[in-house]
Amino acid sequence: MPQQPSDVRVSDADRERVAAILRGAAGQGLLTLAEVDERLAAVYAARYRADLAPLTADLPDSGRPLAPVDLHARARAYAVARAHLAGYLGIVGLLVAIWVATGADSHFWPIWPALGMLPGVVSHLAAVRHAGDPSRGRMLRVPGGCGARAIQHARSRQLVA
Hints:
The chain is an all-alpha fold. It is built from six helices and no strands.
């Protein structure tokens, strides 16, 4: 039987993320120091994810824009995008080498597969700019697509906020 989100225990990383949201809210004047102290005490005493949700419920967009950027997720996204770009360039290089090896006639046919693969690479590189930014978390994603496991992990963490 799958666990309900309210039955899942909260980790130290979840507590720290919610604490960072509350500190950001205090820095922007959304919460008073007394409110932040009270909520931080509740954050560090929380045992289940359901205990954390009410602490940010009255903040704009549940505090998501105030959450710190996940630098580990961003670094991973950059590494995956670099690998995607390297794979693309390798395939294009191989196609050009085949074209040269078969006589390099006047028709440069490797351009067609290269152009066909290019939109995927460009969109991947464009999406990396926002990786790890929880304020950009409402973008539509394709289930099972590129980074599906990371997206599912991020969504399970958003249940807290």
